[in-house]
TrEMBL record:
<dbReference type="InterPro" id="IPR028973">
    <property type="entry name" value="PhnB-like"/>
</dbReference>
<dbReference type="InterPro" id="IPR029068">
    <property type="entry name" value="Glyas_Bleomycin-R_OHBP_Dase"/>
</dbReference>
<protein>
    <submittedName>
        <fullName>VOC family protein</fullName>
    </submittedName>
</protein>
<dbReference type="Pfam" id="PF00903">
    <property type="entry name" value="Glyoxalase"/>
</dbReference>
<dbReference type="InterPro" id="IPR004360">
    <property type="entry name" value="Glyas_Fos-R_dOase_dom"/>
</dbReference>
<feature type="domain" description="Glyoxalase/fosfomycin resistance/dioxygenase">
    <location>
        <begin position="12"/>
        <end position="125"/>
    </location>
</feature>
Amino acid sequence: MTGLTPYLSFPGTAREALTFYQSVFGGELVLHTLADFGRHDGPADAVAHGMLQGPVELFGSDAGPGETTLRLDGVLFSLLGTAEPSTLEAWFAALGVGGHDADPLQKRPWGDHDGQVTDRFGVRWLIGYQG
């Protein structure tokens, strides 16, 4: 387990979001429903706890009634230098499907490459590499 793992609370889209992130980053996805945990405070198939474990780790669930859902302002999930350049470029492109480039991945005047993309779930990613 890494030192910091974001836990995202989705508005009923946790299964879709975590499955999407697995398709982008790879890794193992484990999803537990409310029914799995014997809970009756929402739809039985709602995600009570999900874990993506691999090169990028994320936790997530569907928000319960009255709980705040994912809203990120002024937050970037940074993947600077966390993989080979070709992998980072592929992640950037995949995250942009259904989302939008906030700042295209490009070579900067100081020689490094970086860019920002907001995915279709509203998560903004900073992706880049040296040289």
